[in-house]
Amino acid sequence: MSGTGGSRATDLDGLREQARGLAHEPGVYLFRDGAGDVLYVGKAKSLRSRVGSYFGAEASRSVKLIRLVREIDSIETFPVRSEAEALLLEWNLIREFGPRFNIQLRDDKSYPYIKITITEPFPRIFVTRRLKDDGSRYLGPFTDVGAMRRALRTIKKMYTVRSCHYRMPDELPPRPCLDYHIGRCKAPCAGLQSEADYRKMIDEILEILGGRTGAVRRSVERRMAEAAEALEYERAGELRDVLRGLDQLEGRQAAIDPRGGSHDVIGFARQAAGGAVCGIVLRVREGRLVGRRIHYLANVGDEPDEAVLGALVKGYYLRQADDVPSELLVPEPFDEQDLVEEYFSGVADRRFRIRVPVRGPKLDLTRAANRNAAHVLERDRVERGDDSRDGSGTTGPPAAGARLGEALELQAPVRDIVCFDVSTLAGRESVGSCVWLRDGQPHKDEYRKFRIRDSEEGHTDDYAMMQEIVSRYFDRRVREGRTLPDLVVVDGGRGQLSAARQAMDGAGVSDLPTVALAKREEEVFRPGAPAPLRLPRTDPGLHWLQRARDEAHRFALHYNRTLRSRRALRSRLSEIPGVGPEREQRLLERFGSLDLIRRATPAQLARTPGIGHATATSILASLREDDPAQGVDP
User: Fold this and answer.
1) β-strand 27-32 against 38-44: which pairing, if any?
2) For position 63, what pLDDT does the model report?
């Protein structure tokens, strides 16, 4: 032991010496462990002073810092020109490396975003759940998905945004699509709408989605009056419809600031030390609440509230510096508040203020944001079925799993559930799915899908298909020595349960608890039980079973649809002379659907490897026989 302690003391002496050799300049520092992994990223006004402070007297450091210092093996520094520049670099490196000693901001990934592809000459607008660093604008995440989709539908009625997926102007369709003929698009693909006119429309949409409808309304009213004076009544009518759409959008937004202010409001809530932390951003534009964004913070430990709030503000706004308001309301002062104000005032080229309200409507807003955050944490606790309110994770498995274990008379609480389902349509493309839930949440690394091998064309046997997929799943799992679940669930009744049990007997896992969940009455069938079990509709354990069943059904149905779509494409292409299996596969990979192939030009089709211009023309002529309205362009 003494040798180890002496060696560590020598290591610390070397780190202190390295810190003393650093310059008195701003920058970012990384602490790495012996394996080279990043432990912590920090920034400093003076690298020498800040890094050296970690290696002072141990008694002056917190428990977290003591643990950090004991694991540091090397120091890496990045000098920069200013502390504001270091602020951005620090958070970029935290995002890249995810150090376990830094507080980290995590989105609730279940919420969607609206994506505007502003890097394209003619941008598209659509919903996505995946964030990419591709230069596009992402608005969200949206917690009220229904309201988001209604707003998007309203905007697409107000404006003629293209819905096609062409990479214009490199890819162009042979002629305007149906959207042009019914007035939903002005066909920029055919040169019937200029890029400048289209961009002006996208700019207005960004203003509206950002909650800034006042300027757009005034502009539309002015243009409508000008159109009416010029006797352009059709154009005036279109602009009138835009105003009505704005009325609908504003009507769905809650008015919460009677003075019509525009600002973001930050709130946060935390459970007991070491527990979950949730941050809320309320977006208020022209006095109306236009959005709420939820984020969770990890690696918080016993950090003080001002450090947590500072991490939330910096982590959120540094990732989307193009959507920073002029004023931010926070419940209390936080670390480096002045530096954040200075940095964003420079980025936005206007004054950015951070205020801590002490009275009036703005104080009410910060309190409302804090209550929102507390509500989200409580909602999460209830959905987990967790009776503990400290979120520390020291009370064992969630209560839903314990209650489900008791209801099913199992020897231990339930944490890991697998659920099986089959999907078929008229005996074609019969598939199966297996999903895994851990503590009631999807564990997608363990999802599996199956193509049913033993089903005959046009004939289905649900029990045989269930037996096949369960047998294949557990045969492989046992062979590979992988972890087994606490509970097996099948979608169906006694027949599906019996089929699953036969498969599990054959795989040697007959000791695993197994139930079937029937849809109509939500009855739970158990092996050997004469009557089904009916759990209360409010029971968290039943909610876990329903969630597993519904997720397995969704996963199987999606796989079934994918295979049917590919089958239809392959079937039609195989009828075309000169298109063999290899060309089929290449067309499938490049275009994905018959409709996109049919709408392509011969030149676009000929870019597919192995397909020349003559073959492309032949393919299009054959496909367009199904649709005489479309000819073959040269």
Assistant:
1) antiparallel
2) 77
Q: Say what the pLDDT of residue 514 is.
A: 95
Q: Reduce the DSSP state of residue 456 to 3 states and report it.
A: coil
Q: Token pair of 16, please?
A: 């202190």
Residue 496: both structure tokens together: 């599906």
What does the buried/exposed string (b/e) look like for 46-68 if buried means 16 or more CB atoms within 10 Å of the residue's CB? Answer: ebbebbbebbeeeeebeeeeeeb
Structure tokens at 56: 């002072």
Tell me which residue of 416, 410, 419, 411 sits closest to 398, measured CA to CA: 416
Other Cβ atoms less than 10 A from the Cβ of 29: the count is: 23
Question: Position of tokens 């389902």?
Answer: 421
**Are 541 and 383 within 8 A, CB to CB?**
no
**Residue bearing tokens 């920034």:** 43
Encode pLDDT of 279-328 as tens digits: 888 887 766 666 677 788 877 877 888 888 888 888 888 766 556 777 88
What is the C-alpha to C-alpha distance for residues 513 and 410, in angstroms, rounded to an integer? 8
Non-local CB neighbours of 489 within 8 Å, separated by 6+ positions: 417, 418, 419, 420, 514, 515, 516, 517, 545, 548, 549, 552
CA atoms of 502 and 354, how far apart (whole Å) = 65
The answer on pLDDT for 390 being more than 60 is no
- Asked if 350 and 326 count as a contact pair (C-beta separation under 8 A), the reply is yes
- Spacing of C-alpha 444 from chain mean position: 14
Structure tokens at 204: 């207005």
% residues pLDDT > 90 (the chain): 11
Q: Which residues contact 208 (CB under 8 A, 6 or more apart)?
A: 155, 216, 246, 249
DSSP assignment letter at 394: -
